[in-house]
């Protein structure tokens, strides 16, 4: 898997050898006229509200020598439509966002493999576990010129203000749950703290309750360091940390204390790390174009100790029962019999406004 391009409102990059691999001897995509990418994924994040007017979010149009375009457009009701044109050939799909309300961050993934005449458009709401996909019939290839027009903004290109980032991969990118810990995150084990990236199936770790449980799987993935993947530094001694750790914005942090009991009538709550960023206890971590995350799958979705702070391990629900969902996820290739079934999180997951209110009370 190689990420070839990344664009946001401040930078546009495309590397035919792969972002972060510019010293490779051979390119992933040959720089020759007419070169095509028959397989790949375009991933982007954007804000789309239910009452938003139709607008082009991301895309390009080239009229010469023949009409070529790839356009992603917001549609009324919170959905997104895609139209891909190559001369007289057209591929299109539309997907609705049923839970749209206030402006939420959506992640769209358009993946295709023209060798197998297969395409898929997927919508995910950042912070939610629901994944909605529709098939794209007769997907079209993208030429090298198309990729440059789309990702580098050449010619007639659209990139709406609501866009967060867009990235291009040469592979079918997974959808659904993703890892959220930096590989060098220290995890408490019976043999002391070990980096998350060194743990493997069969190792054991401590839970926040002091139990020792086995690691059933470890999952690692490289992703664009933007939007819902942009690293966050959680700083010691806040949250019980002994050392700073780097985590993804969607990593759930377990929080307790008198404020939690007073506000939510429970001992502990979960909140995504992105809601805790305040410039001192948690802050955005500068990074390059890509970042790498890992996570642990435990039998009962237990809370782990990362640098001393209680963090949620990877939640996979009952994905082992859904063959299609399993094959589309980061767990592709894992025997379903080696996976557990996770009940719903045992702690309340705070909404964005609840987390912000809790953070303000703690800072007061």
Structure in a nutshell:
The protein is mostly beta strands. The chain has four helices and 28 strands.
Report strand %: 35-45%
The computed structural class is: mainly beta
Count all strands and give the number: 28
Q: What is the 3D shape?
A: globular
- CA-atom Rg in angstroms: 21 Å
Number of helices: 4
Low-confidence stretches: none
Major sheet characteristics: 7 strands, antiparallel
Biggest sheet, strands in spatial order? 2-1-14-4-9-10-11
**Mean of residue pLDDT?**
90
The helix content, as a percent range, equals: under 10%
Distance between the termini: 46 Å
What can you tell me about this protein's structure?
- The chain is built from 4 helices and 28 strands.
- The strands form 9 sheets. The protein has a 7-stranded antiparallel beta sheet with strand order 2-1-14-4-9-10-11, with helices on one face. A 5-stranded antiparallel beta sheet has the order 8-7-6-5-13.
- It has helices spanning 144-152, 258-264, 323-327, 352-363; strands spanning 3-7, 12-14, 36-37, 39-48, 55-62, 68-75, 79-86, 89-95, 104-113, 118-125, 131-135, 142-143, 156-159, 163-169, 186-189, 192-195, 204-206, 212-214, 217-224, 232-234, 245-247, 252-256, 268-272, 282-284, 290-297, 303-306, 309-312, 348-349.
- The protein has 364 residues and is mostly beta strands.
- The longest helix is centred in the last third of the chain and has 12 residues, at 352-363.
- It is globular, with a radius of gyration of 21 Å.
């Amino acid at each position: 898997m190689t990420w070839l391009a990344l664009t946001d409102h401040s930078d546009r990059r495309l590397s035919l050898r792969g972002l972060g691999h510019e010293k490779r001897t051979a390119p992933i995509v040959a720089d020759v006229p007419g070169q095509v990418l028959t397989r790949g994924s375009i991933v982007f994040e954007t804000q789309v509200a239910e009452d938003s007017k139709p607008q082009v979010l991301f895309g390009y149009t080239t009229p010469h020598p023949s009409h070529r375009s790839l356009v992603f457009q917001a549609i009324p009701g919170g959905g997104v439509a895609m139209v891909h044109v190559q001369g007289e050939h057209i591929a299109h799909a539309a997907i609705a966002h049923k839970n749209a309300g206030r402006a939420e961050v959506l992640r769209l993934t358009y993946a295709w493999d023209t060798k197998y005449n297969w395409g898929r458009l997927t919508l995910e709401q950042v912070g939610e576990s629901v994944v909605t996909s529709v098939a794209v019939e007769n997907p079209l290839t993208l030429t090298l010129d198309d990729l440059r027009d789309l990702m580098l903004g050449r010619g007639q290109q659209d990139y709406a203000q609501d866009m967060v980032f867009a990235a291009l991969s040469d592979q079918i990118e997974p959808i659904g749950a993703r890892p959220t810990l930096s590989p060098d995150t220290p995890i408490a084990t019976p043999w002391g703290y070990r980096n998350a990236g060194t743990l493997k199936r069969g190792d054991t770790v401590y839970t926040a309750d002091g139990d020792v449980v086995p690691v059933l799987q470890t999952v690692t993935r490289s992703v664009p360091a933007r939007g819902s993947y942009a690293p966050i530094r959680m700083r010691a001694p806040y949250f019980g940390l002994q050392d700073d750790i780097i985590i993804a914005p969607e990593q759930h942090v377990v929080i307790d204390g008198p404020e939690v009991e007073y506000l939510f009538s429970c001992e502990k709550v979960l909140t995504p790390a992105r809601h805790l960023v305040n410039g001192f206890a948690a802050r955005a971590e500068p990074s390059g174009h890509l970042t790498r995350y890992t996570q642990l799958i435990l039998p009962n979705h237990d809370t782990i100790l990362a640098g001393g702070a209680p963090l949620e391990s990877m939640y996979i629900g009952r994905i082992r029962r859904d063959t299609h969902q399993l094959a589309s996820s980061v767990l592709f290739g894992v025997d379903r019999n080696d996976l557990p079934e996770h009940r719903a999180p045992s702690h309340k997951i705070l909404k964005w406004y609840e987390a912000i209110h809790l953070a303000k009370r703690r800072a007061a």
